[in-house]
Structures are given as structure tokens and as C-alpha cells.
Design a protein that fits this description.
Blueprint lengths: L3 E7 L3 H11 L4 E8 L6 H14 L7 E3 L14 H4 L21 H11 L5 E4 L4 H9 L3 H4 L2 E5 L15 H4 L2 H9 L4 E4 L1 H4 L3 E3 H8 L4 H16 L1 H4 L3 E3 L1 H10 L4 E3 L5 E3 L10 E3 L16 E3 L2 E2 L3 H10 L4
Parallel strand pairs: 1-2, 1-4, 2-3, 4-5, 5-6, 6-12
Antiparallel strand pairs: 7-8, 9-13, 10-11
Helix pairs in contact: 1-2, 1-11, 1-13, 4-5, 5-8, 10-11
The structure holds beta-D-ribofuranose and calcium ion.
Length: 319
């Protein structure tokens, strides 16, 4: 099968870096373009990190466009240096790429690619959804042109991670997330319910460090700080594989075994529920039931742990 064209939207970002290299290593998809957004780090720095990783992996051919610096209705808050480092990649100095970002914006790139690949383009979004919302506002017809939108974000039946109910990608721009959930395209939402259950252990990080690929060695270094942060969640050094899980569902390496199509609304009020993904999961006790007219598939269970699948693919990548 010909690889499916992908527009990849990211805020690179430690787990974004893992997802990026995973996609670089995946023959099922072809990276048609990458847009960046402010989230873990600002959109300009995210683009630089992305270009550096692409260069290290011998993929200087993939265009990278800078996207929204600020969420739709407020200013970017500066990111999360205690989780992803001040530079977004765990304070690791990557060899600087020679390339600079494209002249077009990330939203323009998405609109262009949707028209160039009608019915074929997959969108994988693993940061705040600002660029997708801007693109939809610019050209609502992209909702009919895009094949599927796979999003790492939200929390369906578990707590949030940035607030009691808000997951970071959604919480950072709830207004944009609501625009994206409302649009009549098929969304696959990969929430904390499943991403927190898929992890990398110190042994996985050490396996990357021992690889003879400079890219995998860099990933091992980048993961170091991230592992420290996750002691608070798992009581030992390891990490969640949020963004790589969305990427692996997009390639088909991981299958969603429970993922009902249900109405999803994002709370974009200023109250304590801000950023919550309210998934209507009523009447699902006896197995997944799709709700007629709904177009957001909420992933609640997957077929196998991602960790070994991800490690194998990263270690097998020769660039
Ligand atoms: C999400 O937020 C970001 O910090 C991660 O990169 C991931 O996309 C997890 O909530
Ligand atoms: Ca991310």
C-alpha cells in the first residue's frame, strides 16, 4: 500500500520528539508537512527543535512551518520548562539544522495539503489545536477533504493533567479545541485514559542510549528530564507515551479496540471545568456503541502495549 500523506502538528516537546522520530521511521505514512504550535514551548522554538531532529535523522526534505504563537483568545503562557526543559527538548543541545522554516504558516500549509491530497490526508495533532482551528476558519472545506484527524488530547473518564479535568493540549487552547471537535470531519481522540497506560521504562531509554544512531542517542538524552517529572505520576523514573500513541494509532501499528464514536464538547468557559473534554459515554456498559451523527471516536482501549513496538521501530531506523 502506498504510504498515506500526513500533516503533522506538534509542539516539540519531548514526547513530540519521540512521535516525530517514530513517524520518520514508519513506512505506512509519508510526512507531507509539519506545522508547529505553542504548547510545551513556543511555536518558533518547536520548529527549530523539529528541524534539528529531522536533520539528525537525514530527513531534510520534510517542510516545517511555524504556526500560531498564541492561542485563539489569550497569550501563550511560556510552556512547561520543568517538564520539557527551557528549550523543549530536555535542555539537550541538538546539532543545529541548516534549514529554516517555510515562509507559509502552519495553517496555510494544512489548507494547501488538504487540497493537494483530497480524501487522503491524515492530520496528526499532538499539541494545542490552534493551527487546526485557524485552518478551519480560513477554509471550512478542509473538513471534507481531510481523511481523518488523530488527536492526542483530552481526558474522557480520568482526571486531567494541567487542571483537575483539563488535559494540556486541550486546556492550552479550549476555544480552538471546540472548533476542531465541532467541524464535520472524523476525529480520533487519543486521551489520557490510554496514553498514561503506555509507557517507556529506564531500560527502554538505556536501549536508545546504547544504539549506534546519533538520533536515538539524542532521544535518550532528551528523555532524561522527562523521566524525572514522571516520578510524581508513577513513583519511579519512566514516562507516559502520549504523543507516540496517537502516532502509532495513525500508522495502524496500534489498534483501538474500544473507541466509540460519541458526541464530544470542550468546556471553553472560564470556570473550573475549562479545558474538559466532555465525552458522552452513556449506555456503553455492554460494549462500545456509536452514537448516530457523532464523529469523534474516543479511544478507551488499545490492543497491545506501545512501549516495545515504539522501541523496535526507533532502534530499526537507519535514517
Ligand atoms: C500532552 O501535552 C504535552 O505536554 C505533551 O507533549 C502531550 O502532547 C500530554 O498531555
Ligand atoms: Ca505534544
Amino acid at each position: 500500500m502506498a504510504p498515506r500523506p500526513v500533516y503533522f502538528d506538534c509542539d516539540t516537546g519531548v514526547d513530540d520528539a519521540l512521535a516525530l522520530v517514530y513517524l520518520m521511521a514508519s513506512p505506512e505514512v509519508s510526512l507531507a508537512g509539519i506545522g508547529t504550535v505553542s504548547g510545551n514551548i513556543d511555536a518558533r522554538r518547536a520548529a527549530r527543535n523539529t528541524l534539528d531532529l529531522l536533520a539528525l535523522g537525514g530527513r531534510g526534505d520534510v517542510p516545517v512551518a511555524v504556526g500560531a504563537m498564541d492561542p485563539l483568545t489569550h497569550s501563550f503562557d511560556g510552556g512547561v520548562p520543568h517538564i520539557h526543559g527551557h528549550n523543549g527538548v530536555g535542555e539537550v543541545e541538538l546539532p543545529p539544522a541548516e534549514r529554516t522554516p517555510e515562509a507559509e504558516s502552519a495553517a496555510d500549509m494544512l489548507v494547501r495539503l488538504a487540497h493537494e491530497h483530497p480524501g487522503e490526508l491524515d492530520v496528526i495533532a499532538i499539541g494545542p489545536l490552534t493551527n487546526l482551528a485557524v485552518a478551519l476558519k480560513q477554509d471550512p472545506s478542509i473538513a471534507d477533504l481531510v481523511h481523518e484527524v488523530i488527536i492526542m488530547g483530552g481526558a474522557a473518564l480520568v482526571p486531567g493533567n494541567l487542571s483537575a479535568v483539563g488535559e494540556a493540549n486541550i486546556y492550552n487552547d479550549p476555544e480552538a479545541a471546540q472548533v476542531v471537535m465541532e467541524a464535520p470531519w472524523q476525529v480520533v481522540l487519543v486521551p489520557l485514559d490510554v496514553t498514561l497506560e503506555n509507557t517507556f521504562e529506564e531500560s527502554d531509554r538505556l536501549a536508545l542510549a546504547a544504539s549506534d544512531s546519533a538520533l536515538n542517542q539524542a532521544l535518550a538524552d532528551i528523555l532524561d528530564l522527562y523521566f524525572d517529572f514522571y516520578v510524581g505520576e508513577y513513583d519511579r523514573r519512566m514516562c507516559a507515551l502520549h504523543d507516540p500513541l496517537a502516532a502509532a494509532i495513525a500508522t495502524g501499528q496500534i489498534t483501538a479496540t474500544r473507541a466509540p464514536n460519541v458526541p464530544v464538547v470542550v468546556d471553553d468557559t472560564q470556570g473550573p471545568g475549562r479545558g474538559q473534554t466532555i465525552c458522552d459515554l452513556r449506555y456503553q456498559r455492554n460494549g462500545p456503541k456509536d452514537v448516530e451523527g457523532a464523529h469523534v471516536r474516543v479511544v478507551l482501549e488499545t490492543d497491545q502495549p506501545l512501549g516495545p513496538v515504539l522501541l523496535e521501530r526507533l532502534l530499526g531506523y537507519t535514517g
